[in-house]
Every structure is written in C-alpha cells, then in structure tokens.
UniProtKB/TrEMBL annotation:
It is found in: Cell membrane. One of its GO terms (cellular component) is plasma membrane. This is MFS transporter. The lineage of its organism: Bacteria, Pseudomonadati, Pseudomonadota, Alphaproteobacteria, Sphingomonadales. It is a multi-pass membrane protein.
Length: 431
C-alpha cells in the first residue's frame, strides 16, 4: 500500500482519486448534516429519528437496485470518463435542491423541506449509481494488473477519509444550513473541475445494445455474473458487509443521542472513528497481501469484526447516561469512564471491516475481461443495494416494534458470522 501511494503522482489515477474523494466528501457532508439537523433540530423522538434515518438510507440505496444494470451497460459501451463528467455536472443541481431543503427547514417548515432533502438524497443515490461502477472498473483500464489492488485500496481508503472529513465538517456546521448549502455546491463544482482531468477510458469490447427495462436488465446482469463461482461468493460477501454497514450507519445517530446521551458533535466523532477505521483496515490488508488479490484473511477479519461489535455492544450497555435533559458535548463525553472503550471497540469494528472488504472488490475487477468490469461491478451494486435496502427498512420495522439501537448491534454480530462462512468458501474456491 505504501508503494501504491506512488499512484497518486500519475495522471491516470490522481484526477479519478480526487473526483471520487470530493464526491464522497460531499455526499457525506450533506447526508450527515441532514441527519444531524433532523435528529437534533426537527424530531424529538427516538422512533421518529430512527425511522427518518432508515428511510433516507433506503432512498439513497434504492437507485442502485433499479438503475445499476443500466449504469453498467453504459459504462461498458461508452467512454467512462464522459459519464464521470456528466454525473459530476448533475451533482451541482442535486446539491442545490438539498441546500434549499435545509434552508427552508431552518424557517420552521417541515413537510416541504423534508421532501426536498429526501429528494436530494435520492438524487445522490442516482449519482452514485452511475459513478460507482466506473470508479473500480476504470482501474484495470488505466493501471497495470499489479497496481489494481493498490489502486482499489487507495480508492477505498480515500473514500473513507473523505467520509471522515465530511462527517467532521458536518458536525461543526450542520446548524448553519446556509453554510452547508453553499459548501456542498462549491465542492460539487470542484468535483466537476477535477473530472475534466480524468484521462479518456473508451469502450474496449463490442458495442452493446442497451436494455432499458430495469427488471429484465438487472436479472440478466446478475445471471451473467453470478454463475462464476468466485464472483458469486465475492458479491454475496460484499452484500452482507454493506448490509451490516447500512444497519450501523442508521443506528449510530439515535444510539449516540438516546443511549450515550451525547450531542451532535459526538455523533460526528463516532462516524469519524468508523471512517478512520475502515481506511486503516484498507492500508493494513494491502500491506499484508503485498499486492496479491486473495481472500485468505477475509474470514478471520469479519469474525474479528463481529467480536468487536459484541464488545461495542457490551461497553455501550455499561454506559452511565447524562442527567435528565442534558447531553454530553465532546469534551464531556471523552472524560466519561467508558468513553475510550466505546471508541476503541468501534475502531476495531471498522478496521476489521476494511480488511474484509477491500480484497473482495479487487476480485470483481480482475476476474473478468476489461470490457465486462463495469457490468460486473454494477451486478455487485444491484445485489448490494437489494440487501442494503432490506437492511435499512428492517431497521425501521424493528425500531417500530420497540427494538433499541443497542439491541440491533446483536443482529449485526450475527450477520458477521454469515459473512465469514461465505468468505471462507471464497477463499477455498480461489486460493
């Protein structure tokens, strides 16, 4: 991974990395600002907060399920760079809509601002659906085969560092809706500029006949991909990982507010620690594998992740809440007896999660020929999105029946066991 840092000097990689970094930063800045604003300024009920978070997560994921097949076909049938520039142009408009929703919410209105904010989240989901296959599929086209794992790790680490930055910034400025709106539009414009520098990535294979029927196209895409054993296992393992991630992201803000009795700055800290952990895990696994694409560490990594989730659940259960009517700020939170254990166990969850998922993405882009990479990643996105949508909606349903955020952590631990079984089968099939 250290050697892979040299890729940042290459014109074939740096503009793509920058564009992806800015996009991930902006997505997370807006989504985190929206969730924190809704949690701390609009709603005053844990059930409503969890339900809103689950709905917003589901709306972001839904376009992956509906449109990934089309996005994969487009990316494999035309210049990938042209698509990147188009989606970055659209991002500017999406952020304008979201910013308007945030500013209207500050006036005391509720219904229209929520509609605009959720519309923007859906738009960001569409934006990511069309950009997602390209950020991985373009790597084998621009990099030598021995650099693909390093490039994948850098993209993954950069994404989570961007999420970290967006989370931290959102925690400080979410209450200033005008500033959030202005900043997200400005970052979208910078992303548009960096996209102009991404080198061309023309179609490599024969021209495709596009299928615009989302159900038929998705079914064909999955059928054409999932019959390859190691792709099937890699996609299933990644899907379980992101389902786990979707549950955790939905759970964190209400858990911080209602269980740890802490304010929005601590919610940002928790999300930031998670992002740092995944980035660290991405670096560690690249060093351990030394550039070789292998799943041999994935089963142990996800088992360790499950144990870290159980440790996090236990520590949260020992927490002493703040006095009635009070919330810990960051300074007050970090001096609590169990605060460091909360953060360390959460860091462990994220580090082992990063170690688990990075090699699996490398499988997707190196198992098939270069003219099929985008469709392979898109097939993965369809399956991931279906699993994540179910996960997000399940959180909303379980919360409505009285299941607490801390109890949902036990569900996550159980899902890690399933992921480990799948990863072990992948290891046996490939290594």
């Amino acid at each position: 991974m250290i050697n892979a840092l040299g890729l940042l000097k290459r014109r074939q990689f740096l503009p793509l990395f920058t564009t992806q970094f800015l996009g991930a930063f902006n997505d997370n800045l807006f989504k985190t600002s929206m969730v924190l604003f809704a949690t701390y300024e609009i709603f005053a009920d844990a059930t409503q907060e969890s339900f809103f978070n689950a709905i917003s997560a589901a709306l972001f994921i839904l376009p992956f399920f509906v449109l990934s097949a089309l996005s994969g076909q487009l990316a494999d049938s035309m210049d990938k760079t042209r698509i990147i520039r188009l989606v970055k142009t659209v991002e500017i408009g999406i952020m304008a809509v979201g910013g308007a929703g945030l500013m209207l919410a500050r006036t005391g209105a509720v219904t229209l601002p929520l509609i605009l904010m959720l519309a923007a989240v859906t738009g960001l989901g569409i934006h990511s659906t069309f950009f997602g296959p390209i950020k991985y599929a373009i790597l084998p086209q621009h990099l030598d085969e021995e650099d693909v794992l390093g490039g994948t790790g850098l993209v993954e680490a950069g994404t989570y560092l961007a999420i970290l930055a967006g989370t931290i910034v959102a925690g400080f400025i979410y209450h200033s809706t005008t500033l959030v709106a202005a900043l997200t539009i400005a970052v979208a414009a910078l992303g548009w500029l960096s996209a102009r520098a991404v080198p061309p990535a023309p179609r490599l294979g024969p021209k495709l006949t596009l299928d615009y029927n989302p159900i038929r196209a998705s079914w064909r895409l999955i059928a054409e991909t999932m019959h390859i054993p190691r792709l099937f296992l890699a996609i299933c393992a990644i899907s379980f990982f992101w389902t786990i991630g979707s549950v955790l992201i939905v759970v964190f803000p209400p858990l911080v507010k209602n269980v740890l009795t802490a304010d929005a700055s601590v919610a940002s800290l928790v999300l930031a620690v998670f992002s740092i952990g995944v980035a660290i895990g991405s670096v560690i696994i690249n060093l351990m594998l030394k550039g070789r694409i292998s799943a041999r560490f994935s089963p142990a990594s996800v088992i360790a992740m499950g144990l870290a989730v159980l440790a996090f659940w236990w520590v949260v259960g020992q927490w002493t809440p703040a006095a009635d009517g009070r919330l810990f700020d960051m300074a007050g939170f970090v001096v609590q007896p169990h605060a460091m254990l909360v953060l360390l166990t959460l860091l462990g969850v994220a580090v082992f999660g990063g170690m688990f998922v990075v090699p699996l993405y490398a499988f997707l882009t190196t198992t098939v020929t270069k003219d099929h990479t985008a469709r392979t990643v898109a097939a993965n996105n369809v399956v991931n999105a279906g699993a994540m949508t179910v996960g997000s909606l399940a959180v909303g349903a379980l919360t409505a029946t009285g299941v607490t955020p801390s109890q949902l952590l036990l569900v996550v631990a159980g899902m890690c066991v399933i992921s480990a079984i799948i990863a072990q089968r992948l290891h046996r099939a490939c290594d």
